[in-house]
């Protein structure tokens, strides 16, 4: 991990446009012609290299973006989807049959939780939710029909750190696939290098960084990617969550600044986390020595990119959270909005937004306080000024523990 530089891997690719353009050309065609009928048939059966058939399967621009993502993750292949949920659901459905079982982290993005909890039982797939930071819980949940261990590398919204190498050992001892959602920590963590089998992303977040589209990605070995787009039984090919090539083009250009953005998000988040700690707020940030996963993260991370741009603070009640978020939006700290990885700071009260699919009793069990505000810290040039504004909001609302 320490020797792997994802940004250098992307930079080293030579991807040109059709007429030598420095950016690959957008191919806005849904279908492709063939000079010979036999080549078309061979392409249908996945027996040709470099031929394009139909854009739900492959498109040249999607191929370029996938190539860059595979370089970033050090996976042999990748495939891009129209949303993060498209990536997650296609991957899971490709690997399970009716009667199978999945072991999943209980702290995941709410949409993922809802799919695992509410949707998969419709096709008789059972899911056991565990705290994946407790490896014994993971081991004990495995059954003879288990097929997958699913986790987020840095979990949403509690920011727990998954011990990917240890989870990988457990998965492989039982012949299971380890799937890791790395949405919160592109470049910081390289799950495939650390032992995951499949890495999924919501590119809507840090990878694209502009909040102008939804998109996703699946990074894995060639046989898994080919199975996803198999014309007879590939979930991606048959359910059709393909990304539009116009979007692929803009995401690829944004990917080339990801390394700079991740460093700035991390630098700003660490600054705020330390300042919040100094004034006695309850803060969760993997870069703080007080964070449960801090030591583990240090052994897994690519240090140059920092501990990431996500912070959670706990102001005890959802009423306090609402008042603080409204004040911060009013004073220009950022926006009261879900999602993350944007150039401006975004904040939301997780229990009432991105984790609202998780029932309140489960939220309490997993340690998700009603007053938890998740911050996706922006690229602010003067983060001290931002902190001073947040401090004044906290003070006005009597939310500073020493003062209150
Ligand atoms: N994974 C994580 C960790 C997320 O936070 C989200 C969305 O917030 C998703 C997946 C789903 O991605 P999308 O909204 O692009 O479908």
Question: Care to describe what's here?
Answer:
The chain is built from 15 helices and twelve strands. The chain is α/β, with parallel strands linked by helices. It folds into two domains: 6-255, Aspartate Aminotransferase, domain 2 (3-Layer(aba) Sandwich), CATH 3.40.640.10; 259-396, Alpha-Beta Complex (Aspartate Aminotransferase, domain 1). A seven-stranded mixed beta sheet has the order 1-7-6-5-4-2-3, sandwiched between helices. Strands 8-9-12-11-10 form a five-stranded mixed beta sheet, with helices on one face. Helix 5 (110-119) links the parallel strand 2 (101-105) and strand 3 (126-130). The chain is globular, with a radius of gyration of 22 Å. 49% of the residues are buried. The model has no long low-confidence stretch (mean pLDDT 95). Pyridoxal-5'-phosphate is lined by residues 83-85, 109, 111-112, 152, 156, 181, 183, 202, 204, 214, 216, 339, 354.
Gyration radius, to the nearest Å? 22 Å
Percentage beta strand: 5-15%
Q: So how many helices?
A: 15
Q: What is the number of E strands?
A: 12
- Mean pLDDT across residues: 95
CATH H-level superfamily title of the largest domain:
Type I PLP-dependent aspartate aminotransferase-like (Major domain)
Q: Tell me the CATH topology of the largest domain.
A: Aspartate Aminotransferase, domain 2
Low-confidence stretches: none
The description of the largest β-sheet is:
7 strands, mixed
Class per helix and strand makeup:
alpha/beta
The domain tally reads: 2
Name the overall outline.
globular
CATH architecture assignment of the largest domain: 3-Layer(aba) Sandwich
